[in-house]
């Protein structure tokens, strides 16, 4: 006998929402100029469409992600959901108590103490003094600022202010929590504590979170649903893995589309670049990233050098540093096909750089394998890719245990 599937309650319903802004193109200080411009059809502004017919539902208990590049309209959408902006067309229905934290520390007064700022911020969010009393202990405990709460906020370090603002944001007793790019705050220990809190809130079926972020690892860690807004349009709203991959690929394509191609400047003796043979986003960490390194020589003397060498290195773009180095590889043609196994890495963003090298004029007896660099990959001639395994819940950029 089939059990009836219980239908979840919708707590945020966005239906056919559009929003545009008028951007001034000129200023006029006289009535005559304004009238003349109007008669000529010059309005003095242009209309910028930010959101175009956006519709989606957020259900109770969702950890709902909204992703998109800068300028895509996602922050405008959050402000409409938070009732800061009014949609030009369409409707937004909210079922529950919504607390929005679009910018950390908005409404804090540097002349007031930490304690007074907590109560001030609570009042701005619509909480009574009694409700803030009930939340106060949790806020102070989470921020770990017990001994500083009676000091003026202007005497706090920037890190302390961020911790207090973030604690107010996530400890507010609300049904729906709206967050805009505020996950990575504080030092490493505080970030770890924050991640543990979000893991806990993710399991709360009565708590709904709407998160705007550029961090696809955070989306995969916390979100059960995600939408992708591109140029004000709801681009995709299907599988979470597909959306995060598509977002990352679009970002890489945008970066690569601005790369200057062509022959190297005359002063350069050679040019070296990397051509990707694998996808820009890899979903399974047991795959290889395959690529080719190519070079071209412009100096006649170099063409007589033999042998020439290619060296490539894998950089972790999130944490920094080189995590793999090929060493110098002798080549007898103008290209080298190579691959790097990824099973030992957690999710992160990578960049591969390469250099063209030759034997040194003076041999280093202590390091006979040392080579001299001729040129290296310029910005845009490197290869960037992302490892994003949805089953991998560990922090980005760390080596797996082997």
From TrEMBL:
Pfam families: ABC_tran. InterPro entries: AAA+_ATPase, ABC_transporter-like_ATP-bd, ABC_transporter-like_CS, ABC_transpr_TagH-like, Bact_Polysacc_Export_ATP-bd, P-loop_NTPase. It comes from the Bacteria. One of its GO terms (cellular component) is membrane. One of its GO terms (molecular function) is ABC-type transporter activity. SMART domains: AAA (SM00382). Residues 31-256 form the ABC transporter domain. Keywords: ATP-binding, Nucleotide-binding, Transport. Belongs to the ABC transporter superfamily. This is ABC transporter ATP-binding protein. It comes from Pseudolactococcus paracarnosus.
């Amino acid at each position: 006998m089939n059990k009836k599937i219980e239908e979840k309650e919708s707590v945020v319903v966005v239906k056919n929402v559009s929003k545009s802004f008028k951007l001034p193109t000129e200023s006029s200080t006289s009535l005559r100029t304004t009238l003349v411009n109007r008669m000529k059809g010059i309005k003095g502004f242009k209309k910028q469409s930010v959101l175009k017919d956006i519709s989606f539902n957020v259900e109770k208990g969702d950890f709902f992600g909204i992703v998109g590049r800068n300028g895509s309209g996602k922050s405008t959408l959050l402000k409409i959901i938070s009732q800061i902006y009014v949609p030009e067309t369409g409707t937004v229905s909210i079922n529950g108590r919504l607390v929005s934290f679009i910018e950390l520390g908005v409404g804090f007064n540097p002349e007031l103490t930490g304690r007074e700022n907590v109560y001030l911020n609570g009042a701005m969010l619509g909480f009574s003094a009694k409700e803030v009393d009930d939340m106060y202990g949790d806020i102070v405990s989470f921020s770990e600022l017990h001994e500083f709460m009676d000091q003026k906020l202007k005497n706090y370090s920037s890190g302390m202010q961020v911790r207090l603002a973030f604690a107010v944001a996530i400890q507010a007793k609300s049904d729906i929590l709206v967050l805009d790019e505020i996950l990575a705050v504080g030092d490493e220990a505080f970030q770890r504590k924050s991640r543990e809190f979000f893991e806990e809130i993710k399991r709360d079926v009565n708590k709904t979170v709407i998160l705007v972020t550029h961090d696809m690892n955070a989306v995969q860690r916390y979100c059960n649903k995600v939408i992708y807004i591109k140029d004000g349009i709801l681009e995709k709203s299907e599988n979470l893995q597909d959306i995060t991959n598509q977002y990352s690929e679009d970002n890489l394509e945008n970066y690569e589309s601005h790369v200057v191609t062509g022959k190297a400047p005359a002063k350069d003796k050679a040019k070296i670049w990397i051509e990707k043979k694998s996808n820009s986003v890899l979903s399974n960490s047991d795959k290889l990233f395959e690529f080719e390194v190519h070079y071209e020589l412009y100096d006649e003397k170099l063409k007589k050098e033999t042998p020439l060498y290619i060296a490539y290195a894998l950089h972790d773009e999130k944490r920094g540093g080189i995590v793999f180095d090929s060493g110098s590889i002798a080549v007898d043609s103008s290209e080298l096909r190579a691959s790097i196994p990824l099973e030992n890495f957690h999710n992160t963003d990578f960049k591969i750089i390469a250099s063209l090298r030759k034997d040194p004029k003076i041999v280093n007896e202590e390091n006979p394998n040392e080579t001299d660099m001729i040129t290296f990959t310029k910005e845009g001639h490197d290869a960037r890719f992302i490892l994003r395994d949805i089953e991998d819940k560990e922090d980005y950029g760390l080596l797996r245990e082997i």
